Amino acid sequence: MTTQTIGIILNGVTGRMGYRQHLVRSILAIRDEGGLRLPDGSRAQLRPVLVGRSKDRLEQIAHRHGIAEYTTDLDAALADDGLHVYADFLLTSARVPALRRAIAAGKALYSEKPTAETHAEAADLAREVERAGLHNGVVHDKIYLPGLRKLKRLLDSGFFGRVLSVRGEFGYWVFEGDWQPAQRPSWNYRREDGGGIVVDMFPHWSYVLEHLFGPVRTVYAHTATHIPKRVDEQGRTYAATADDAAYAIFEVGRDVVVQMNSSWCVRVDRDELVEFQVDGTRGSAVVGLFNGRVQSREVTPRPVWNPDLADAHDYRADWAAVPDNGEFANGFRAQWEEYLRDFAAGRPHRFDFASAARGVLLAERALESAAAGRRVGLGEGPEAGR
Ligand SMILES: NC(=O)c1ccc[n+]([C@@H]2O[C@H](COP(=O)([O-])OP(=O)(O)OC[C@H]3O[C@@H](n4cnc5c(N)ncnc54)[C@H](O)[C@@H]3O)[C@@H](O)[C@H]2O)c1
Questions:
Q1: What confidence tens digit (pLDDT) does each residue in 72-104 have?
Q2: Which residues line ligand 1 (CB under 6 A)?
Q3: Which residues partner with 47 through β-bridges?
């Protein structure tokens, strides 16, 4: 029994994130299963309307997926009272003006991260949506992934005792583009085009750490541009002006020390492209995006430092895998479902524009720290991003 239809304007579906993660794997997957199941057993069907700059490209996507409505006229879509949610997957630099038009039209908002290029703009947006009383959410996909959900479950169970420290390792080798093409777009390596690993990844670390351990209170970051010259999509050599690695220490929540390495200049000797080791008084865990393993106090080995003897102990064997104990949907879809259920119930979504602003703030303060060579505070508590 379908009780309602939620109309969603999808702006930027020709892009990498907009097409695969948001349109195909989230909105269409929900639509094709008969809509979103609501807690009372009814379903809300989705009415997607594609918006973009190229009519031809929108038409191709619409035909491929049996979508009835698409337009290059954003204002016309915003004027349609049957469309409730405006979702934005544009290039970050094009986002703020588009969000402002949707705010003026009184739509609910859902946005890729970051909501804006500067903290001042992101904080303004957060204030504007709050003042206007608009339902709002920002993509925080990483915490919907199986590995981080397992970590949250461990934290909630009290497994760790008191959490002492976290060591996070994110990165992989991104080819320079000379003898093999680079696997990321060249603008990522130009600061003047909004590139840099801090701007790209620190908004993620902000909500991941806040969700798991509490607000980030201070940051010390050392950034580097390890590879000063790269080759772009046209085969032209260009100067890499943005940071391609960042080595950071965050003070988080109640005295948790987080060391986080983020780098596009490391070769992977890990099980996953990002891994976090959490050490607590009663136990430790190592989690990636999908898997996790734990070691409790009771089974912790007792190594003795002796450089004269090779150590035959297999430390890896002392860890136990954390089972799934459930099914994990695609992270983007899981958040879409939660956002839409919140919308249908008229309650706020927990990852809002204020949370997005705190992510941008962390990136800005990290760059400030790197430039000044000192630790920088973020202000008090979760309101710091406002
Ligand atoms: N959550 C994540 O893990 C994650 C990962 C990658 C990117 N992102 C974010 O998603 C957003 C999109 O990134 P992407 O990699 O899909 O980029 P993309 O370049 O593949 O897509 C950008 C989209 O914006 C449109 N666009 C570009 N310039 C425009 C303009 N001037 N006016 C209107 N539309 C314009 C393009 O047509 C395209 O539809 C970015 O804000 C990025 O930060 C998030």
A1: 999 999 999 999 999 999 988 899 999 999 999
A2: 12, 14-18, 52-53, 89-92, 94, 112-113, 139, 141
A3: 7
